[in-house]
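Cross-check.
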Amino acid sequence: MNGQFAEEEWKLLLDLVSREFGLVFQDSRRRHLESRLLPRLRALGLESFGAYYRYLARHPERGAELRELARIVTNNETYFFREAHHFDLLVQQVVPQLSTHSRPGLLRVLSAGCSSGDEAYSIVIALQGALVDRTGLDWQIDACDLNSARIAQAREGLYEAGSLRACDELGRSAHFSAQGDRFRLRPEHRKGTSFFEANLAVAGLDLPGAPYHVIFCRNVLIYFSEEAFHRTLSHFHRTLVAGGYLFLGHAESLIGRRNDFQPVRLCNSIVYRKQDKNP
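Predicted model, tokenized:
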């Protein structure tokens, strides 16, 4: 196969990934993706990325392979209490404001792009640590991800040591029980959690726990195409309560890109609050 034809077929495959999952792979990430796809080509007996594209586009088993592809293309870098200041802001600033203005009774939070559940469970531990449940406020933490294998791990609650790298020894012993060289989250920290598969970039996304008071979607949108970025933010706007909060990762910003989320500075951090699209 000549180089130009191979490049054209590779572009077709990248276009399919963007179309199906909203993800874009710039040149700097291409080699990484190639290395992760090659085992699938070998498993299917395919000789080129073009053949793999045609399999994904037309094969009767394309649905099952798209699920495998979703597992391959997702970035699963996560750990407990990543960007820990966000959890402090949630319990110290956001929850009191929501309780004062809307008295939610049941606080509904979505962890979007949750990977193996580290973020969702960190939210529960933070709420429990702040004794939020003793104020009469209960919670439901929904968490979704494209990768079915990570959702299964989140439901199991079993983690490698790297997932606990932001936890000190006291935190490890308080929240986890050791199982060999891995750590199982204690049952009490799974209170009010639910995990499900979801493709954030798909049109007409239905989030079953909506409306939400708070959405965490951190270090996800940086990998999205422009179209998928705006579609996902529109989903979030539609499913947040009036005045609800959106937490993004430190490298992500809506400033100058959307007018339906107001940047709010809380303790030297920027979070976003839902407002009308045409303020």
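The CA atoms of residues 87 and 126 lie 6 Å apart. The chain has two domains: 3-73, 85-274. Passed to J.P. for a second look.
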